[in-house]
Amino acid sequence: QHYTDAFAQVNPLRKVPALKDGDFTLAESVAILLYLSRKYKAPDHWYPQDLQARARVDEYLSWQHTALRSCCTRVMWQKLMFPVAMGQPVPPETLAATLAELDRCLQMLEDKFLQDQAFLTGPHISVADLVAITELMHPVSAGCQVFESRPRLAAWRQRVEAAVGKDLFQEAHEVVLKAKDMPPVDATVKEKLKHSVQALLK
Amino acid sequence: QHYTDAFAQVNPLRKVPALKDGDFTLAESVAILLYLSRKYKAPDHWYPQDLQARARVDEYLSWQHTALRSCCTRVMWQKLMFPVAMGQPVPPETLAATLAELDRCLQMLEDKFLQDQAFLTGPHISVADLVAITELMHPVSAGCQVFESRPRLAAWRQRVEAAVGKDLFQEAHEVVLKAKDMPPVDATVKEKLKHSVQALLK
């Protein structure tokens, strides 16, 4: 759907998510989250006013693009979307390298961000936790044991679920967790996707 | 220098840039820029209070990580650092694919962000322009003709230089523009770098 011309009117980058709020359109999930939190005056802890606390959230949001986000997406594609949905096998050494990178990113998530805190950027839940948990659901959906050998991260996941509420937490991840049951994509879609997803094979 | 233990005290991610402000340490250039603009109450245009104008800046800052930033860094490494400083040849088809990606990113920078505006996110200079120009100096330093065939982008570059001031603009890019004259790295540094930079060969 996001390769249609109608969608390009909302987001010329032709990527999801995208927001349309009246005449105003906006791409990029992080920008959208910050826009919504400001527009609806979300409670301070989501994106704190305090100079240093906010900088910690910005630091996470910035780091994750080329680290956790990048490798969670590639794990999902290499382990699930290419072989199952696209019918395109992935070289085992490529997948192995991506999984090793995921492991390094998870270690950094624990050691540099979570540490001994309740949430990734401090004692309260922030948009950083939302961005992180939604990324982590991609390798989980592809069958990776992200939390099983990482008790600190598993406890954090429980705290995020409790803070968000069990129902909303499930609803937010419903689609991604069902990806393994999706039917193979048809030839037309495969042709459209071909070029744009090849970079995810690296 | 950023692989030393002393630097890891400031930034456990062992990456530059990093900021140390009293006891407070912070990584990630975007987070550092926003921190400094808030701490020193920079004029509004750098990161506007207006809801939609700020969202435009956030959108750019978010987009560039996996787009312009990622390919500018890879161009610099594949065209200059690997072959010249590291003495490691880069497969021509790898470099060609990266240069094609740079071209697509530049096109998006013009079509989706700059459009017919004076600056990337609107009529005034913002942190988005600073982040963009510093990234673009990497392929420029590696000998790419980034602005030559793109008059709209070249005019924007002139406006950024004028807004920042010629001297500061030059000073900010002095090191990166001298990269081609740096001596080959010695064996110890090469060994330290080896693993961390291999991803830039993709």
Structure description:
Two copies of one chain form a homodimer. Chain A is mostly helical and 202 residues long. Chain A has two domains: 35 residues, Glutaredoxin (3-Layer(aba) Sandwich), CATH 3.40.30.10; 155 residues, Up-down Bundle (Glutathione S-transferase Yfyf (Class Pi), Chain A, domain 2), CATH 1.20.1050. Chain A has eight helices and two strands, in the order αββααααααα. A two-stranded antiparallel ribbon of chain A has the order 1-2. In chain A, strand 1 and strand 2 form a beta hairpin. In chain A, helix 3 runs antiparallel to helix 4 and helix 3 runs parallel beside helix 5. The radius of gyration of chain A is 18 Å and the shape is globular. The two termini of chain A are 25 Å apart. The interface between A and B is medium-sized, with 33 and 33 residues.
Specify the overall morphology of chain A. Answer: globular
Rg estimate of chain A, integer Å: 18 Å
Quaternary assembly: homodimer
Widest β-sheet, arrangement of strands of chain A:
1-2
How would a textbook summarize the main sheet of chain A? Answer: 2 strands, antiparallel
Subunit structure (chains A, B): Homodimer.
Pfam families (chains A, B): GST_C, GST_N
Subcellular location (chains A, B): Cytoplasm
GO molecular function (chains A, B): glutathione transferase activity
